[in-house]
Every structure is written in structure tokens, then in C-alpha cells.
Design goal:
Two copies of one chain form a homodimer.
Chain A (H helix, E strand, L loop, with lengths): L21 H5 L3 H8 L4 H10 L2 E2 H8 L4 H13 L3 E6 L5 E6 L1 H19 L1 H16 L2
Antiparallel strand pairs in A: 1-3, 2-3
Helix pairs in contact in A: 3-6
Chain B binds a DNA duplex (20 and 20 nucleotides) through helix 4 and helix 5.
Chain lengths: 139, 139
DNA sequence: CCGTATCCGATTTGATACTG
DNA sequence: CAGTATCAAATCGGATACGG
């Protein structure tokens, strides 16, 4: 186990853009983890559960656009990754509560920062895309 | 312009997990932007270019695992979003330099935070996954 | 209420080969 | 060196129907 990423050398700066051991990072499981969180619904669910625990159909209504299939799949993946806890209450009818684990709550910070960036720079991006599309039509 | 996400209400907390206006967020273009950055290679390239500008084949070697097709596609998307600048030097043979725009550099911060999180908690995640898999085999 | 199972289309990605 | 073109495979994601 020494060829993966050597020793987690505090890989990234928190405030300023600094040179990064790129080769180490590229070969790392970082991409793996990022892809896991970077799918269509994971971040949204993490943020949602960051507010408070939710029941299954609560989530289904809150996201509204997600299918049962993807809601279940995404929750199961988050659970198996230790980010979300699934708690079944043996009532009748049964109720299931989903909540963030401590690990999940720690993820909430960087994810929130990214979502925050997306909101702040949404217009700049769509502007750039519009300019790019226009430049492609009238070169 | 009033039905999209009302007024960008400082949507997410930076330090502490706080309740989030979930319905607003879910209907927002946030998911759009996140999906754009959350694909398999974008974050990696942004981080790589955050270190210093790179030429095409430099990136190809640095990531090592990406196909020419995906490298080009991802770079083009990042460029059209205004995150990356593509500069062609009319030398022979031709050389093309990719670098981060100011907008791209602003993205570097939250992305780095997320990648940093991924590195720090990589073991916890794989541990959780292992436990989950084990629990599935011997219930 | 809380899911699982199945089918099917859309999108993403990689391999390979070829060009200015 | 820096790409483009084409094809096939894998994955994603939604609709629908059914089960505990």
C-alpha cells in the first residue's frame, strides 16, 4: 500500500490557489470519491439531510423530479459510503428516517461551499456560454 | 427572472451546517452547475490547471487514464463556461496552452476544499463500504 | 408507507484510426 | 503536437408495475 498516493501530503490549499502535487492527485481515489458525490442527486440529498433528518417520501417530495429508483439508489450508495444513516422504526405503517452521519456532516461544509459558488457565479457562466455560442455562429 | 431561485439568499452556510431553503435549492440551476463540474474529469483538470498552465499533451500525460476524446471535450466545455482559457501559439509544431481564467481560479477554492475532504476521508469511506459489503454477506 | 424489479431510451466514456 | 471522427460499450436515469 505505498503506490496509491504516498502519504496524503495535505494535498490542497484552503484559501489560496497553490501548486498541487498533480500526479499524486490524478492517480488517487480522489476522482473516485468526487464522482460518487458528483452525480445528479447526491449533493442535493446531502444538503437536504444537512438541514434535518427526512423520511423517504419527504425526500421524494422535496426533490421532486427524482424517481423512486434513483432516490433509493442514491440513498443506498450514500449509506454504504457511511455518509447517511438509515433508521427503520418498526411502526405500522413502517417509517424510515434518513439522517447524516458525522462523516456526512463533515462533507456538508465543502459541498455547501461548492453549491454556494455555483449560485454566486451562475450568471457569469451562462454569460460565458452565451458569448461562446455567439462567437461560434459569427466568427 | 423571479421564478428561478428568488434572490440568491446566501443559500449555504460556510462553516456550520445550517438549515437550508431546500425547495429553492432543488429547483435552482445549482444542480446544473454542479453536474457540469461534477463529471469525471473537470475537477481534476481545474485542480491541475490551478497549479500552472499546461499544454495539451502535458495534461494528457498528467491525468493518464483520460482519452484524447474526453480530454478535448472536457477542456472545450470548461472553456465555453469561461473557466479555462485556450491560447494557441502559432509556432511549428503548434503548441496550445490551457490556463485558468479568473472565474476558474475562483472555482479552485471550493473544488480544492472538496478534493481535500476526499483525500482526508478516503479511508473512512472505503472502511464504511467494506463494512457494508461484509454486513450484506453475513447478516 | 417504503421500497424492489424490469424494461428502455439517453447520455457518457473509451478504443481506435485518421488529419493539419 | 494537437486534435477530429466513428463505433461500440457501459452507465445513468425515468416510467411503470408489483411486493412487504
Amino acid at each position: 500500500m505505498s503506490g496509491t498516493h504516498t502519504d496524503v501530503p495535505s494535498v490542497l490549499a484552503h484559501e489560496l490557489p497553490r501548486p498541487v502535487p498533480a500526479d499524486e492527485l490524478a492517480a488517487c481515489p480522489v476522482g473516485d470519491v468526487l464522482r460518487r458525490v458528483g452525480d445528479k442527486w447526491s449533493m442535493l440529498l446531502v444538503i437536504l439531510l444537512g438541514g434535518r433528518p427526512h423520511r423517504y417520501n419527504e425526500l421524494h417530495r422535496a426533490v421532486e423530479g427524482i424517481s423512486q429508483r434513483m432516490l433509493t439508489r442514491t440513498l443506498r450508495t450514500l449509506e454504504s459510503d457511511g455518509l447517511v444513516r438509515r433508521q427503520v422504526h418498526p411502526t405500522v405503517p413502517p417509517s424510515v428516517e434518513y439522517s447524516l452521519t458525522p462523516l456526512g456532516r463533515s462533507l456538508l461544509e465543502p459541498v455547501s461551499a461548492l453549491a454556494d459558488w455555483a449560485v454566486r457565479h451562475e450568471e457569469e457562466i451562462s454569460g460565458a456560454r452565451a458569448r461562446h455560442a455567439a462567437a461560434r455562429d459569427t466568427p
